[in-house]
Design a protein that fits this description.
Length: 277
Protein backbone atom coordinates (compact mmCIF):
# COMPACT_ATOMS: atom_id res chain seq x y z
CA UNK A 1 0.00 0.00 0.00
CA UNK A 2 1.48 3.32 -1.07
CA UNK A 3 2.47 5.87 1.59
CA UNK A 4 2.31 9.47 0.42
CA UNK A 5 4.99 11.78 1.83
CA UNK A 6 3.23 14.87 0.49
CA UNK A 7 -0.39 15.63 -0.33
CA UNK A 8 -1.56 14.53 -3.82
CA UNK A 9 -2.68 18.06 -4.69
CA UNK A 10 -1.03 21.36 -3.66
CA UNK A 11 -2.10 22.61 -0.25
CA UNK A 12 -0.79 25.55 1.73
CA UNK A 13 0.89 24.45 4.95
CA UNK A 14 0.93 20.67 4.55
CA UNK A 15 3.32 18.96 6.96
CA UNK A 16 5.58 17.04 4.56
CA UNK A 17 8.76 18.16 6.39
CA UNK A 18 7.53 16.46 9.56
CA UNK A 19 6.68 13.13 7.92
CA UNK A 20 9.50 11.06 9.42
CA UNK A 21 9.24 12.32 13.00
CA UNK A 22 5.44 12.35 13.00
CA UNK A 23 5.22 8.78 11.69
CA UNK A 24 7.70 7.67 14.35
CA UNK A 25 5.48 9.14 17.10
CA UNK A 26 2.37 7.38 15.77
CA UNK A 27 4.16 4.03 15.39
CA UNK A 28 5.41 4.19 18.96
CA UNK A 29 2.01 5.12 20.43
CA UNK A 30 -0.39 2.99 18.38
CA UNK A 31 -3.38 5.03 19.66
CA UNK A 32 -6.84 3.52 19.53
CA UNK A 33 -8.23 6.66 17.89
CA UNK A 34 -6.55 9.58 16.07
CA UNK A 35 -8.61 12.75 15.62
CA UNK A 36 -7.26 15.13 12.96
CA UNK A 37 -8.99 18.30 14.14
CA UNK A 38 -7.90 20.58 11.27
CA UNK A 39 -7.63 17.98 8.52
CA UNK A 40 -6.31 20.27 5.76
CA UNK A 41 -4.88 18.11 2.98
CA UNK A 42 -5.40 14.93 4.99
CA UNK A 43 -1.67 14.16 4.98
CA UNK A 44 -1.46 13.76 8.76
CA UNK A 45 -4.49 11.45 8.76
CA UNK A 46 -3.03 9.43 5.89
CA UNK A 47 0.34 9.07 7.63
CA UNK A 48 -1.30 8.16 10.94
CA UNK A 49 -3.27 5.34 9.29
CA UNK A 50 -0.19 4.06 7.49
CA UNK A 51 1.92 4.17 10.66
CA UNK A 52 -0.76 2.49 12.81
CA UNK A 53 -3.15 0.55 10.54
CA UNK A 54 -5.28 -0.73 13.43
CA UNK A 55 -5.98 2.77 14.73
CA UNK A 56 -9.25 4.46 13.94
CA UNK A 57 -8.37 7.71 12.15
CA UNK A 58 -10.93 10.48 11.82
CA UNK A 59 -10.14 13.16 9.22
CA UNK A 60 -11.99 16.45 9.68
CA UNK A 61 -12.11 17.68 6.09
CA UNK A 62 -13.10 21.21 7.04
CA UNK A 63 -11.42 22.73 3.95
CA UNK A 64 -13.24 20.31 1.62
CA UNK A 65 -10.00 18.90 0.20
CA UNK A 66 -11.89 15.73 -0.73
CA UNK A 67 -13.83 17.70 -3.33
CA UNK A 68 -10.56 18.67 -4.99
CA UNK A 69 -9.43 15.03 -4.96
CA UNK A 70 -12.72 13.95 -6.53
CA UNK A 71 -12.13 16.38 -9.42
CA UNK A 72 -8.57 15.21 -10.22
CA UNK A 73 -9.61 13.74 -13.62
CA UNK A 74 -11.14 17.09 -14.62
CA UNK A 75 -8.09 19.00 -13.32
CA UNK A 76 -5.70 16.70 -15.20
CA UNK A 77 -7.67 17.17 -18.43
CA UNK A 78 -7.43 20.94 -18.07
CA UNK A 79 -3.71 20.82 -17.30
CA UNK A 80 -3.05 18.56 -20.29
CA UNK A 81 -4.70 21.22 -22.48
CA UNK A 82 -2.44 23.91 -21.00
CA UNK A 83 0.62 21.67 -21.24
CA UNK A 84 0.05 21.27 -24.97
CA UNK A 85 -0.64 25.02 -25.37
CA UNK A 86 2.64 25.86 -23.64
CA UNK A 87 4.81 23.13 -25.19
CA UNK A 88 7.23 25.76 -26.55
CA UNK A 89 7.36 27.64 -23.24
CA UNK A 90 10.22 26.60 -20.97
CA UNK A 91 9.65 25.57 -17.37
CA UNK A 92 9.28 28.57 -15.03
CA UNK A 93 9.19 30.93 -18.01
CA UNK A 94 6.72 33.82 -18.08
CA UNK A 95 3.70 33.04 -20.27
CA UNK A 96 3.13 35.47 -23.13
CA UNK A 97 0.14 37.78 -23.07
CA UNK A 98 -1.37 36.02 -26.12
CA UNK A 99 -1.30 32.58 -24.51
CA UNK A 100 -2.32 34.04 -21.17
CA UNK A 101 -5.54 35.26 -22.81
CA UNK A 102 -6.17 31.77 -24.22
CA UNK A 103 -5.70 30.31 -20.71
CA UNK A 104 -8.08 32.84 -19.16
CA UNK A 105 -10.72 32.15 -21.82
CA UNK A 106 -10.46 28.42 -21.10
CA UNK A 107 -10.66 28.99 -17.34
CA UNK A 108 -13.71 31.21 -17.74
CA UNK A 109 -15.39 28.48 -19.76
CA UNK A 110 -14.56 25.78 -17.20
CA UNK A 111 -15.67 28.03 -14.36
CA UNK A 112 -19.03 28.58 -16.05
CA UNK A 113 -19.44 24.79 -16.27
CA UNK A 114 -19.22 24.55 -12.51
CA UNK A 115 -15.82 23.58 -11.08
CA UNK A 116 -12.17 24.67 -11.24
CA UNK A 117 -9.50 23.68 -8.71
CA UNK A 118 -8.06 27.18 -8.39
CA UNK A 119 -5.37 26.17 -5.89
CA UNK A 120 -3.91 23.48 -8.15
CA UNK A 121 -4.17 25.85 -11.12
CA UNK A 122 -2.38 28.54 -9.11
CA UNK A 123 0.45 26.14 -8.35
CA UNK A 124 0.66 25.28 -12.06
CA UNK A 125 0.44 28.77 -13.55
CA UNK A 126 1.77 31.19 -10.92
CA UNK A 127 5.05 31.81 -9.22
CA UNK A 128 5.77 29.89 -6.03
CA UNK A 129 3.64 30.70 -2.96
CA UNK A 130 1.11 32.76 -4.94
CA UNK A 131 -2.53 31.62 -4.93
CA UNK A 132 -5.81 32.78 -6.40
CA UNK A 133 -9.06 31.28 -5.16
CA UNK A 134 -11.41 32.42 -7.94
CA UNK A 135 -11.42 33.63 -11.54
CA UNK A 136 -11.45 37.33 -10.63
CA UNK A 137 -8.22 36.93 -8.64
CA UNK A 138 -6.66 34.66 -11.25
CA UNK A 139 -7.03 37.08 -14.16
CA UNK A 140 -5.05 39.75 -12.27
CA UNK A 141 -1.95 37.58 -11.98
CA UNK A 142 1.16 37.27 -14.11
CA UNK A 143 1.45 33.66 -15.29
CA UNK A 144 4.43 31.32 -15.45
CA UNK A 145 4.76 27.80 -16.81
CA UNK A 146 4.94 25.75 -13.60
CA UNK A 147 2.89 22.82 -14.92
CA UNK A 148 4.02 19.36 -13.85
CA UNK A 149 4.84 16.97 -16.68
CA UNK A 150 2.83 14.15 -15.10
CA UNK A 151 -0.81 13.92 -14.11
CA UNK A 152 -1.96 14.15 -10.51
CA UNK A 153 -3.17 10.99 -8.76
CA UNK A 154 -4.55 10.20 -5.32
CA UNK A 155 -5.01 6.44 -5.60
CA UNK A 156 -5.51 4.94 -2.12
CA UNK A 157 -4.80 8.21 -0.34
CA UNK A 158 -8.02 8.24 1.70
CA UNK A 159 -8.22 4.47 2.26
CA UNK A 160 -9.15 3.56 5.82
CA UNK A 161 -9.99 7.10 6.95
CA UNK A 162 -13.29 8.22 8.43
CA UNK A 163 -14.28 11.60 6.96
CA UNK A 164 -16.29 14.22 8.82
CA UNK A 165 -16.76 17.97 8.34
CA UNK A 166 -17.46 19.83 11.55
CA UNK A 167 -16.10 22.41 13.99
CA UNK A 168 -13.03 21.05 15.78
CA UNK A 169 -14.64 21.77 19.16
CA UNK A 170 -17.33 19.19 18.45
CA UNK A 171 -14.69 16.51 17.94
CA UNK A 172 -12.75 17.50 21.06
CA UNK A 173 -15.86 17.26 23.19
CA UNK A 174 -17.10 14.06 21.58
CA UNK A 175 -13.87 12.09 22.03
CA UNK A 176 -12.01 13.76 24.91
CA UNK A 177 -13.14 11.20 27.54
CA UNK A 178 -12.36 8.12 25.48
CA UNK A 179 -9.18 6.14 26.34
CA UNK A 180 -6.10 6.18 24.11
CA UNK A 181 -7.20 9.06 21.90
CA UNK A 182 -4.60 11.27 20.21
CA UNK A 183 -5.62 14.68 18.88
CA UNK A 184 -3.79 16.26 15.93
CA UNK A 185 -3.98 20.06 15.93
CA UNK A 186 -2.65 21.91 12.90
CA UNK A 187 -4.64 25.17 12.72
CA UNK A 188 -3.73 27.83 10.13
CA UNK A 189 -0.64 29.64 11.39
CA UNK A 190 -0.72 33.11 12.85
CA UNK A 191 1.15 35.77 10.81
CA UNK A 192 0.85 33.82 7.56
CA UNK A 193 -1.40 34.12 4.50
CA UNK A 194 -4.40 31.83 5.12
CA UNK A 195 -6.75 32.89 2.33
CA UNK A 196 -6.75 29.41 0.76
CA UNK A 197 -8.36 27.94 3.89
CA UNK A 198 -12.14 27.76 4.08
CA UNK A 199 -11.94 28.89 7.73
CA UNK A 200 -9.63 31.86 7.20
CA UNK A 201 -12.20 34.47 8.11
CA UNK A 202 -12.32 33.60 11.81
CA UNK A 203 -8.69 32.85 12.70
CA UNK A 204 -7.83 35.52 15.24
CA UNK A 205 -5.63 35.28 18.34
CA UNK A 206 -8.72 34.41 20.37
CA UNK A 207 -9.35 31.39 18.16
CA UNK A 208 -5.79 30.13 18.67
CA UNK A 209 -6.18 30.45 22.41
CA UNK A 210 -9.51 28.61 22.21
CA UNK A 211 -7.67 25.68 20.61
CA UNK A 212 -5.26 25.55 23.54
CA UNK A 213 -8.19 25.59 25.96
CA UNK A 214 -9.77 22.60 24.19
CA UNK A 215 -6.48 20.65 24.30
CA UNK A 216 -6.04 20.92 28.07
CA UNK A 217 -5.42 17.50 29.65
CA UNK A 218 -5.53 15.77 26.25
CA UNK A 219 -2.87 13.86 24.34
CA UNK A 220 -1.95 15.87 21.28
CA UNK A 221 0.44 16.58 18.45
CA UNK A 222 0.33 20.35 17.85
CA UNK A 223 1.86 22.26 14.94
CA UNK A 224 2.83 25.93 14.82
CA UNK A 225 5.75 28.11 13.70
CA UNK A 226 8.10 30.60 15.31
CA UNK A 227 6.17 33.40 13.54
CA UNK A 228 3.08 32.79 15.64
CA UNK A 229 4.86 33.23 19.02
CA UNK A 230 2.10 31.13 20.59
CA UNK A 231 4.66 29.00 22.46
CA UNK A 232 6.34 32.13 23.85
CA UNK A 233 2.93 33.42 24.95
CA UNK A 234 2.22 30.24 26.90
CA UNK A 235 5.69 30.36 28.47
CA UNK A 236 5.04 33.94 29.57
CA UNK A 237 1.71 32.91 31.07
CA UNK A 238 3.44 30.14 33.00
CA UNK A 239 6.30 32.35 34.19
CA UNK A 240 3.91 35.00 35.44
CA UNK A 241 1.82 32.50 37.40
CA UNK A 242 -1.35 33.37 35.56
CA UNK A 243 -4.41 31.28 36.22
CA UNK A 244 -4.33 30.39 32.50
CA UNK A 245 -2.32 27.20 32.23
CA UNK A 246 0.58 26.68 29.79
CA UNK A 247 -0.48 23.48 28.05
CA UNK A 248 2.94 23.16 26.37
CA UNK A 249 4.80 22.80 29.69
CA UNK A 250 6.55 19.43 29.56
CA UNK A 251 5.79 18.84 25.89
CA UNK A 252 8.43 17.43 23.52
CA UNK A 253 9.37 19.55 20.52
CA UNK A 254 10.62 18.93 16.98
CA UNK A 255 11.57 21.78 14.63
CA UNK A 256 12.21 22.02 10.88
CA UNK A 257 13.56 25.07 9.03
CA UNK A 258 11.13 25.82 6.19
CA UNK A 259 12.21 27.95 3.23
CA UNK A 260 9.80 30.48 1.78
CA UNK A 261 9.94 32.63 -1.33
CA UNK A 262 12.79 35.12 -1.48
CA UNK A 263 15.28 35.22 1.38
CA UNK A 264 12.80 34.74 4.23
CA UNK A 265 12.40 31.51 6.14
CA UNK A 266 10.64 30.33 9.25
CA UNK A 267 10.87 27.44 11.69
CA UNK A 268 8.07 24.87 11.57
CA UNK A 269 7.33 23.49 15.05
CA UNK A 270 5.72 20.21 16.13
CA UNK A 271 4.96 19.74 19.85
CA UNK A 272 3.56 16.59 21.39
CA UNK A 273 2.44 15.62 24.86
CA UNK A 274 0.87 12.38 26.00
CA UNK A 275 -1.59 12.32 28.87
CA UNK A 276 -4.08 9.57 28.08
CA UNK A 277 -2.53 7.46 25.30
Amino acid sequence: MKTYTSAPLPFQGQKRRHVKEFSKIIKSLKPAVVIDLFGGSGLLSHLAKRASPKSRVIYNDYDNYCERLAHIPQTNKLLRYFRELLHECKADERITDTKRMVILKKLASENARGYVDWITLSSSLMFSMKYAVNYEEFKKQTMYNKIKMVDYTADGYLDGLEMVRTDYRNLCRQYRDMPRVLFLADPPYLSTDVKTYKSAEYWTMKDYLDVLTELRSLSYVYFTSDKSQIVELCQWIDANESQVRNIFKGASISTVKSPTSGTNSYTDIMLYKLNTV
